[in-house]
Specification:
Length: 150
């Protein structure tokens, strides 16, 4: 989990939407910042390649424009806990990935991991670990990521 800032495109600067903050940056461009969650796919030395975890404003993979085949449910829980149910009409076919939480951290039941987007996260930024992918699901993480990029 980390503070993530990226270009916002055409939006109304100086406003907030949920946990997202819009601001005007250099060259009068707009950026937005929010707390984002990522799963590390590969550690590359001074940076990691990561995939995002989002709820899409609690719409999961039913949100318009989402590529459903690139998504899976991701959840925190114990070894014998069942994953959260899919949202009505969601259509996700990938097996859910369980996260073994650090302390009392928990993912929202609408959390979805997007294997279709890869982000680079430098190792010199502040992050908070919320857990690790359960050992029995690590092969799914790598296979789903590779499949989304072929």
């Amino acid at each position: 989990m980390m503070l993530w800032t990226e270009p916002a495109g055409r939006v109304h600067p100086g406003r907030t939407r949920g946990s997202t903050h819009f601001s005007v940056v250099k060259y009068s461009e707009t950026a937005y910042s929010e707390i984002r969650r990522f799963v590390v796919v590969f550690n590359k030395g001074s940076f990691s390649q990561c995939v995002p975890v989002q709820t899409y404003r609690r719409q999961g993979a039913t949100k318009s424009g989402v590529v459903v085949k690139d998504h899976a449910v991701i959840y925190t829980g114990g070894e014998h806990d069942d994953p959260p149910s899919l949202l009505e009409g969601e259509g996700i076919t990938k097996q859910a990935l369980r996260v073994v939480a650090d302390g009392d951290e928990a993912l929202d039941v609408c959390s979805r991991i997007n294997f279709g987007k890869t982000y680079t996260v430098e190792h010199n930024v502040k992050v908070l670990s919320i857990g690790t992918i359960a050992p029995e699901h690590r092969h799914l993480l790598e296979n789903y990521w590779r499949s989304a990029h072929q």
